[in-house]
Structure formats: C-alpha cells, structure tokens
Automatic annotation (TrEMBL):
Gene3D superfamilies (alphabetical): Transferase(Phosphotransferase) domain 1 (1.10.510.10)
Chain spans, region Disordered: 1-39
GO molecular function, one term: ATP binding
SUPFAM superfamilies linked to this entry: Protein kinase-like (PK-like) (SSF56112)
Residue spans of biased composition, Polar residues class: 8-23
Protein name: Protein kinase domain-containing protein
InterPro entries to which the protein is assigned, alphabetical: Kinase-like_dom_sf (IPR011009), Pkinase_fungal (IPR040976), Prot_kinase_dom (IPR000719)
Amino acid sequence: MTYGFTPSKHSSQSAGALSNTSRDLSEIQEERKGQAEADVAERLREARDTVHDVVKPENPMNDSLSDELVIFTAELLERYIRGDAMPQDLCTREDKEFHDTLMNLAVSFMAWLSESSPPPRESLMYKPKNALVWFVAHCVKHKLPAHPLTASRLVLPVESPDRKAGDSDDRTRPDMMFITRLIDSDLDKVPKRPSYSDALAIIEAKRSERHELEAQRQLFYQTRQLYFNQPNRRFAWGLTLCNKTACAYLFTNDDVFRTPDMDLGSPSGRHSFVQLLVRFSLCETHQLGYDSNFVELGSGKWKIICHDGDDRKEYYVTDIPVRAERLFGRHTRCFIASPTDPWTSDSNEENVERVAIKDAWSRATESEKDDVRDEVAMMRKFDTELCGMKESDDLIYPEVMIGGRITYVNGEGAVTSDNTKHILKAPLSESFSDICFRAHKVIVMTPVGRDLSGLESANELIQVAADVMQFHSALVKHCNILHRDISDSNILLVEKDGRQRGMLIDFDYALDMSIEGQTAHKDRTGTLPFMSVNNLLASDAPRTALDDWESMLYLLCWIGTFWVNDEYKRADEFQDALQINRWRTGSTEAITEAKRGHLHSKKLFASQIAKKFHPGIPGCKYLHTLVQQLRSALIDSDISIPNICGASTMDPPEPEDGDFESYLDQKDIDPFFERARDKDIVESISACLLKILGDAARKTSTN
C-alpha cells in the first residue's frame, strides 16, 4: 500500500471527514496505525546530536543559566546514585525539604536502575521514569526564582498512565505525557488525567530495547493528536523509553529527527536526558513548537496576530472549523475570527464582523519573491484579473484582506521568518541535503462560509458545483490558474441573494499555467476518492482543467452515494459492499484501476456507481442524470482523439493515413494521458462540461 504522499491529502485522518463516510472508528484506527508504520519507515531520519540544539536557549542569559543548571542537576543526581553525602554548597539546612524530596525521587529511580531484567509490565516502569523528570523539575524550580528570565517553565510528567486522553478523537491511550507549568506553580496540583491539548510531548514506553520499533510506531500514531488539539502547534516533540534507553524525536512537516540513544543507566546518558529537560524549561516557547503569534486568553479562547509584510493585525478566534488532522503535511487550520473582542459585555454577536483565517505550512522557496506557487500572490492575482469583468459579477470567490509569511521575535530580539530552516537551525538543517523547505503563512479573507453538511438537496449540490466550476473556468481562461485540489473540504457554502452559493477555496496547490514547466508537476495532490487518474499515477501528462473536472465528477458521485451528513445514512452492510469504496482503499494503483473500470463505459458507470445513489436524497434523479452526462463528455466525447475513448489503457489503434504512426512502437495507450496532451481538446471538453453543469443548475433552480 502506498502511504504518505506529500503534499497530498491522500487519506483524511479526521473521523468526521466526508471521505470517511461509511467507515467506523475501528477502520479509521487501523488506517492510522498503517500510516504510522509507513511513516516510521519513510520519514524517520538518522540520529543526530544536533537535535538537542533545536531547544538550546536562544537568549544568551538563559543559555548560560541552562548550562549551569544542567551541571548542578546532573552532578546532584550522580551524588544521590553513588550515595555520596550532600555538600553544604549544594544542600544547606534551609534546603532540607528540597533534599528530602530529591532523595525520595532518587530512591525510586535508583531501585529501577538496579534491576537486572525488565519489569513484567510496562506500567511498573512509569513511576521510576517519571521520578527522574520530577527530580529535574524540582531542581529547576529550586534554582530559577532568583533569575529574571525572559522564558522559563517547569516540565512535568502526567502521573496517571494508560488512561484515555479526555480530548482524544479515537479513544487512544498514551503511556505518558510531558506538560508545562509556570515556574511558580504548585507541584502538588498537576492534573491526573492526560489531555492532548495540554501536552508538550507524548512518551511511549516499552519493557525492552527490542521493542523500540513498536514504541516509535505508537509515538507517531499518538503525536498526531497534538496537532489536532493544539491550534498553536507548529512542530512537535516526543520520546520513547525502552527499558533504560531514552530517545527524543523532533516532528516537522515532512521528517522526524531523532537524538542518539540516551542510556539512563550511564552517567553520560543521564546527563543528556537532564540537558534536554533543562533546555525544554529555559528555551523560547517557539522552540518547543508553539506559535508565539497565538495568545491564549483562557477557557479555550485565542487571539491571533496576523501578518502582511510589516503590518500586524489582531483577531479573536470564535470557532475552529478545520483542525490539523494529519501528522505530516501543511497542518492546515481554519479559524473564524473577529477583529474586535466578541466576549466584551457590550459586544453584540449578531453585528460582529467575521473573517476566515487560514494557517498553513506550504512548500515554498526561501526567497518570497521567487515563490511562484505562493497562495496569497495567486489569490491577489485572480482578484485583480477578474475585478471589473462583466462575467465576474456573479462569481463567488474568497478575497484576501491581509496575508503573508509569518515572523516571530527570537530569543536574541531579532525578527525571524517562521520556516523549517529556522526551526531546525544550521547544524541540523545542514546535515541533511534533502529537507523540504516550508514557510508558515496566514491568510485573512472573506466571505465566511460553512461546509457542505449544510446542503439540503441534490438540487442545491448541483447549483453549488456549477458556481464552483464557473469560477474555476474563469480562473483557467482569464488568469491561467489551475486549482488542482477539488474536494469536499475545499468547497464552502455562502449565502447570497437568499440562496446557497458555492465557493472554491484553498489555492495552496494551484499552478500558474503561464509559467513554463508548471503544469508538468508530478506530485500527487488531493484526497484519494477525488483524485484524477493522472494525479494518482503521478503521470508525466501535463495537469489540465480536465483533472479538476474529473475530481468534480468523483465528488458528485461520492456525495450522491453517501450524502454530506447522516440524514440519509444506509445500513453499514450495504454501504460497505458498494463499488465506490474502491476509490478510497488500497494502493494508488488499485484505486486507479477501480476508477478506470467504473468510468470505462456508460453501462458500467451507471450500474456500479450512478444507480447506487441514495434514492431518498431530494433531487437525486437530477444528480443521477448529470453525472452520466459529465462522464460521457469527459470520457466518450466526440471531441477526443479518434479511436481514443473509454477510460482504460488499450492497444494502439490501427493507423489511418499515417495517423498514430508514432504510437506503433507502444504497448498501449492511456486515454487520460492523450486527452491532456492537446490544449484545444482540453478547452473544448471543458467548455462542454461547463455547459452541461450550467444547464443542470438552471433546470434544478426552478424545481
């Protein structure tokens, strides 16, 4: 099975996603486990000492204090382990309570160190391992109050292991977690139940070093929850503890970097572990993976500082309709927000201005001016190009208010661009030559829409699809922009003139076709059920409007079968047996062949796909007719190259008067590839498809 395309959204990890309709939670969990297994094999990099340096405090004073605190804590720990008497300069009479606390923690840790064989159960390892973390936390708390630090915190373990996290979306049970608290916090008031929204890092423990791979897979599986539950999470940390061997992991958008093993049974290994925890305590918050442009206001309320060049504007988040659902990729989030505080006593909720904010990590070039696929620039281009055109009066599309790359102030007071290079820092980033460069971007836009679950009939769906593809066609014709990611998550409903309209969003994967070589991109983009055949195959064929039309056809079929909510849900046994499920499961090759087979002939498409639409959906008969017309225009069009019809590969046709002479030495011909090669054919078929959809929308609007 093929996993982990980047930057694609090949499998929606959200249990509530439309592409997961008809699957229960156990099936989603199995997919996530398979994804984690593949990600460990594909994304885990070789160990580097420089991973520790990512959390080396940027502030010079904190850095110096960190070094002192590591020496103090590590030496104190070794004295307890050796049984040395405490010297007066380390533990005076006034520090007796501190000394007693550390002694109790050290006894627990030392008892575990002295064991020659692993304990019979993993849970017996948690307390002594947590004791080491508590030991470091007490040392940090003991030494820091006298220092006016710019950043400091306590790193603490959650004591109750193997309990379901309260905010898990799939009943997952982490072994342990690290959380952070203010330096003056009461250490007796640490929460007893794990919460992903509160976690700094997930820790997965195993009884033996032989089980390290299993621990890594579980860590990858669990860490996804940090991105999902923390709207300000940029990158993540995690640890595995296999018997007496600890290892820290840095999760970025495309790769996972790990430290060398830290042997907690040796002084050097314990020193490295203490250093990591102390640096966690003294580094800047952005070095832990948090976005410093997010300000938590308490009770789940957030304020976001958005950037547009040198301009800054604050917005108050009122809802988070889209969360980061995958461990890797763009980590796209969407916030509904207001430029004024909606929670003040004199605020009238009905009159509060609302905007949509998109936060994502996009593939980019280091030079912003050379970034030809910059989404903000793309959106400003089509806004400018379409503005004033007569046909644009009825087009629905998002308009940028402000947007651009995000910056933050580092520990030395310098304004820094938020990107993968600055996260990893020079020693680590320079040790790997193939690290994908991503830039953190935020876009504030209007209007605010809602997802497709608000649809009430197939008639509305057809009209929404017509709005989307009318705008899509204008983009291609007037702006040379190809969207490349038609899916349920990229279409919103907006209210205009008393009816539901469709708006296409998310131009992160869009291409400017006027730039030479752009349409030759072979990367897979999209969500599996809606990806075109050429897209699934990462074909050499140029990407064209027909790929997006093909995706729209798949989307209409998917919604016609499963609908957009549970109102027309059918029995699981019936849904599980549907042929259309083959568009979502298996390898990309298997999905490709399933789609080819279903589209190959009018009869196959009608019997296996269209006739399986839910008959209870209002207006289903119109949708049933429409998708068959779209399939015929896309696959069987008379405009296509003669003898190249259907959706499956075929033997080369017999040459006619020299036609197809260049094909004679080929084994077969791919009709999807051939249609994409001729610009005139692409334009003619696209125009035909738009007319069919437009006619259907006008007809259904009167019913």
